[in-house]
């Protein structure tokens, strides 16, 4: 049997390594179990949980500062939602990290800054943590990957690495520049043109105006570097398409596209814009139906439809947001029907062939 050499075109290596170190909350099914699981593994006096998803809880709620204060008292507690777009802390944790929110909930860019501060406060041996994380990637057959959120703080823990950066100081070495246009469906920060079905009046968040985004993208292009635009919702994708029509590099990418409209897919195909999908995200479909409603779900997580329409697809895991295994991702989408279906072999080919060829890299 041929040995597969997978290229993951979108993951967060530092966060993946870190998530393998902290307490995994992915399987907790109640707030009571969440408390017990966190208490079982203190790290230097802290209780830190990752890969949390309120959709797996019987209560379907995000615990806030008041809940954590009551449950854990003066012990610092920090929980990272699996999407990496939301962090929750109790009072003790906020005091030690010198960051404050009345609810204890922090969103978007604050998440990454908080994680960096946490590593410093806990005095973790990140070199060792990273080494173990990279070994896990190799175990999954991933012999090369592209990190999609590198900054100067994270860069010090890696030797050679391919990456898109969020830090202008690294732009010369980087493959390109990463921009977050919106958030995620789980935290209801993914930007939609119509309101969330389970949160009337809420449309998610755009992080830039079109004018602001175009100025940044054009600046990156003038350095002969492409951009990678995180766009989960259709309103964010509208913005990405609009800006890339105005300023373009042949290797520009749009990331995620959990919810798209048919007109957008046609435009992406016509413009030949690279699109990086995460098939493993199809596991979100059971709860995403509540966010989007039945009509929008027809073109949500529509990886098979994208392939049919001739989009230039890359594939990645976005780990540690979900499982890193290409084989696991392939099995998930192979079990689906209609627009959301991809054959098992098609998904693995994206990892083992298409990703490599689009970057003109030799498989090793």
Helix/strand-derived category reads alpha/beta
Largest sheet: 8 strands, parallel
Number of helices: 14
Number of strands: 13
Summarize the helix and strand pattern as letters.
EHEHEHEEHEHHEHEEHEHEHEHHEHH
- Low-confidence stretches at least 5 residues in length (pLDDT < 50)? none
CATH level-1 class of the largest domain: Alpha Beta
Instruction: Give the termini distance in whole angstroms.
Output: 16 Å
Q: Could you give me the name of the CATH homologous superfamily of the largest domain?
A: Metal-dependent hydrolases
Strand composition percent: 15-25%
The global form is globular
Rg of Cα set: 20 Å
> Within the CATH hierarchy, at the fold level, what is the topology of the largest domain?
TIM Barrel
Number of domains: 2
Helix percentage = 25-40%
- Second-tier CATH architecture of the largest domain: Alpha-Beta Barrel
Give average pLDDT, whole number. 95
Spatial strand order of the main sheet = 1-7-8-9-10-11-12-13
